[in-house]
Design a protein that fits this description.
Helix content: under 10%
Order of helices and strands: EEEEEH
Strand order of the largest sheet: 2-3-4
Number of domains: 1
Length: about 80
């Protein structure tokens, strides 16, 4: 996936303090802090690469990877952030 700059970004996230970068690069992620009735969310924008778009059009699904052993509250959406 290609990181996009989300409209009205409020901050840029960098790599976690313990990220060594040996196996996988961790770039800057522009996020927008969005308060909701369910609590505050950090929202980022992504665009599929041409190869990923072809895979999606061929029936592949999007996978959400979460680092760690407990699952935080997450959401996948399409379109504008309300």
């Amino acid at each position: 996936m290609i990181i996009k700059r989300i409209a009205n970004a409020t901050r840029d996230l960098g790599a976690p303090p313990d990220w060594d970068g040996r196996d996988l690069k961790c770039g800057v992620l522009p996020i927008r802090d969005v308060p909701t009735e369910a609590g505050s969310f950090m929202v980022s924008a992504w665009e599929p690469s041409p190869a990923e778009l072809a895979a999606l059009n061929a029936g592949e699904s999007i996978k959400l990877w979460v680092r760690g052993s407990t699952h935080p509250v997450v959401a996948l959406t399409v379109g504008d952030v309300a």
